[in-house]
């Protein structure tokens, strides 16, 4: 059931609902990408009503700025209001995990549970990003030269897609299937909003300088599940300080899985998340 959410400043957001059960609102990664968590929604549809949406400027939603974390949090709350949800679980993946965390910190009374999937934690980016860059280049393997060529020059829309597929392929451990998985993510191709990506990444980087989130996270009395893939090229130790700061937290690391752990360990991912959703709080 596709719907249009109208934000408080008139931006039109694409949203869709599936399943039955307590509400879970997804926050996709990026920033500047679109919602690609349909597989996860189907996994959880027997235990939850899942709400997916394209963030402002992304995919099927209107390309209307300005872009900021505060605006993204407000947009997420507009989704909640549109569907008449008093409280909800929020599941965020990758950059969306940071959005989900920020929403929970802003509105803990509106959150039942928080599910933090493949995020990068609350440490300054400088503490882990060089390791991520090394891992990315190593995993690209034979695709590294082409990726570097595309990265350093202006690209056509077709080359934007090629660049994205190469970069997304590193998020999968099985190299024989990685490009196929990345191609599926890029189909249909809805285009990257590079302005949104640049602005929100820069703001997120600034907000993490100085470790100011640690003390705030210690006050977040919301049951939280952190889910990682052990082979994610983003160092998993970057998330340790978030785990240490949260009062009610459990963590599941899926061995042999990458940045999209539900693709490479669907049984383990569903078991962890569905179990968390169906536990009394």
Description:
Its EC number is 3.4.11.5. One of its GO terms (molecular function) is aminopeptidase activity. Pfam families: Abhydrolase_1 (PF00561). This is Proline iminopeptidase. Residues 23-261 form the AB hydrolase-1 domain. With 281 residues, the protein is of the alpha/beta class. It has a single domain (2-128, 192-277), classed as Alpha/Beta hydrolase fold, catalytic domain (Rossmann fold), CATH 3.40.50. It is 41% helix and 18% strand. It contains 12 helices and 8 strands. The protein has helices spanning 38-44, 69-82, 95-106, 129-140, 144-151, 157-169, 178-185, 194-208, 213-217, 240-245, 261-264, 266-277; strands at residues 2-6, 12-19, 22-27, 48-53, 88-93, 111-117, 224-229, 249-254. It has an 8-stranded mixed sheet with strand order 1-2-4-3-5-6-7-8. Strand 1 and strand 2 (12-19) form a beta hairpin. Helix 2 crosses helix 3 and helix 5 (144-151) crosses helix 6 (157-169). The longest helix has 15 residues, at 194-208. It is globular, with a radius of gyration of 18 Å. The mean pLDDT is 96.
């Amino acid at each position: 059931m596709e719907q249009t959410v109208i934000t408080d400043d008139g931006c039109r957001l694409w949203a869709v609902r599936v399943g039955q059960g307590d509400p879970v609102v997804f926050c996709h990664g990026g920033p500047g990408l679109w919602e690609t968590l349909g597989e996860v929604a189907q996994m959880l549809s027997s235990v939850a009503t899942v709400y997916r949406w394209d963030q402002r400027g992304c995919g099927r939603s209107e390309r209307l700025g300005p872009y900021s974390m505060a605006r993204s949090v407000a947009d997420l709350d507009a989704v909640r209001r549109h569907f008449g949800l008093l409280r909800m679980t929020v599941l965020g993946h990758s950059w969306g995990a940071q959005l989900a965390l920020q929403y929970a910190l802003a509105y803990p009374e509106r959150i039942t549970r928080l599910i933090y999937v493949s995020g990068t934690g609350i440490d300054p980016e400088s503490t882990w990003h060089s390791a991520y860059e090394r891992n990315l280049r190593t995993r690209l393997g034979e695709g590294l030269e082409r990726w570097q060529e595309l990265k350093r020059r202006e690209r056509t829309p077709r080359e934007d897609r090629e660049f994205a597929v190469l970069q997304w392929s590193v998020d999968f451990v099985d190299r024989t299937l990685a490009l196929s998985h990345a191609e599926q993510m890029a189909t249909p191709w809805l285009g990257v909003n590079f302005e949104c990506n640049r602005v929100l990444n820069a703001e997120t980087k600034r907000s993490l300088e100085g470790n100011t989130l640690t003390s705030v996270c210690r006050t977040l009395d919301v049951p939280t599940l952190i889910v990682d893939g052990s082979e994610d090229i983003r160092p998993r130790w970057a998330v340790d300080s978030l785990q240490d700061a949260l009062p009610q937290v459990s963590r599941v690391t899926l061995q042999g899985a990458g940045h999209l752990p539900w693709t490479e360990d669907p049984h383990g991912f569903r078991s962890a998340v569905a179990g968390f959703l169906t536990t009394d709080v």
